[in-house]
Design goal:
single chain, alpha+beta, 17-stranded mixed β-sheet, 17 strands, 16% helix, globular
């Protein structure tokens, strides 16, 4: 194991992760390192750890693995994917402005908007099509385990989400921890509390599976946009305002794919021991 690992901290709308290029710095036991490094007082402080590596699939350019702050491995993160796009381009690992990124929930296409000075101004990720049912992630609404589940909409973006429309967004702190581990969700769940603020503008607070309350969640923004359109609260384009910033979501009619756009920012670089 490498004794010292160089890392980069980045955030997308306040959703912050530690990024490691494992092609230069391979690491073992990323679950344990995610727990240690994500700690806010004794570590770097983050929502989790993102590993950038070579792809396994022949039609992908790079791969991404995500470990939440509690060490559990996530299937997908929209904000992390967008940050990876900026990292790969600005750090010189690719000159492509269309990048195919392999994740545990499939290959995602990243579309980079590059300024004349070579900086990536915005990254849009094709999150593929949402699913409104998944027997592994959400039990049937008629199941006894769902009897005390608040009214909401289940949406899978590869990872599971449950969207609750309410005027009381502070429920994220009281109901979020309980609902994440509700028996209706065999693999636990990301919980969104959403309020329609007029037009296609939606205010959202999120409790993420494995990380707790976070400043933003890209796949959660997508799930909320889907739930809002299904309920007649919004059209195919939504502006999702989260605690850490604003994301833009489009649910395309032609192929059913979700496009997620927003900022991706570097915070700082550093070096840390990988010894356990």
């Amino acid at each position: 194991m490498t004794a010292k690992v160089k890392f980069t901290k980045m955030h997308g709308a306040g959703n912050d992760y530690i990024y490691v290029d494992t092609m230069r710095f391979p690491i073992d036991q990323p679950d344990e390192l995610a727990r240690r490094w994500s700690a806010p007082h004794t570590g770097i402080g983050s929502d989790g750890l993102v590993l950038i590596g070579p792809p396994v699939a022949p039609d992908a350019d790079f791969s991404m693995r995500i470990f939440n702050a509690d060490g559990s491995e996530a299937l997908m993160c929209g904000n992390a994917s967008r940050c990876v796009g900026k990292y790969l381009y600005e750090r010189g690992l690719t000159d492509k402005t269309v990048i195919r990124l392999q994740t545990l929930s499939g290959i995602k296409t990243l579309l980079l908007k590059v300024a004349q000075d070579g900086t990536v101004e915005q990254v849009t990720v094709d999150m593929l099509a949402p699913a409104l049912s998944n027997g592994r992630q959400f039990l049937s609404a008629e199941a006894s385990e769902c009897a005390d589940l608040p009214a909401g909409t289940f949406v899978s973006m590869g990872n599971p989400h449950y969207v609750i429309f309410t005027d009381h967004l502070d429920r994220v702190l009281t109901d979020g921890p309980r609902l994440e581990c509700h028996p209706a969700f065999p693999e636990r769940c990301n919980i969104e509390f959403a309020r329609i603020d007029g037009g296609d503008r939606i205010r959202v607070r999120v409790w993420e599976r494995g990380s707790g309350q976070t400043m933003a969640c890209g796949s959660g923004a997508c799930a909320t946009a889907v739930a809002a359109m299904l309920a007649g609260h919004a059209g195919r384009r939504s502006t999702i305002v989260m605690d850490g910033g604003t994301l833009h979501v489009e649910w395309r009619e032609d192929d059913g794919h979700i496009l997620l756009s927003g900022p991706a920012e570097f915070v700082f670089d550093g070096e840390i021991s990988s010894k356990l």
